[in-house]
Amino acid sequence: MIYNAFGEWFFPHWLALAALAIIIPGYYISRLKNKSYALKIYIIAMVLSYYLLIGGAINEAFLHIPYLSQFFLAENPSPLDVSHLIALVFFVLLILKYLMKYWSNIFPNK
To answer: Taking a C-beta distance cutoff of 8 angstroms, is the pair 37, 45 a contact?
Structure first.
């Protein structure tokens, strides 16, 4: 069901499979409400899936917006690389925020 735009298996196809590999365990782990590790895995899976969604949007913006497309193949560090780095740092901080917020639920004291 993945659209084949270039006549061959393309890098975004791997990202689509990575997104599925992250979302499916996150979905199924959400059913284990009494397990201490379920919330941790769920938070990480869902935030990483959001990162893949935003990363794809960043790529699409640099491919289809005329002003940004001139930077798509720019030398390092390109605006595309910087945009992805900002998104990655944001989502890593988001994961850490939620893990710290729910730390007592994830690792209950015995």
So the answer is: no
pTM over 0.90: no
Contact 2, 14 (CB under 8 A): no
Mean pLDDT by 10 residues, the chain (110 residues): 59 78 87 75 86 84 81 77 88 86 61
Single-letter code of the amino acid located at 8? E
109 — phi, psi (to 5°)? Answer: -70, 140
DSSP 19-59: HHHHHHHHHHHTT-TT-TTHHHHHHHHHHHHHHHHHHHHHH
| 104, 100, 17, 52: CA torsion to nearest 10 | 150
Instruction: Please report, in angstroms and rounded to a whole number, the separation of the first and last CA atoms in the chain.
Output: 47
Let me know if 13 is exposed, middle or buried by CB neighbors in 10 A (0-12, 13-18, 19+). middle
Amino acid at 3: Y
User: In the block, which residue shows the tokens 């850490």?
Assistant: 96
Tokens coding 34 = 């009494």
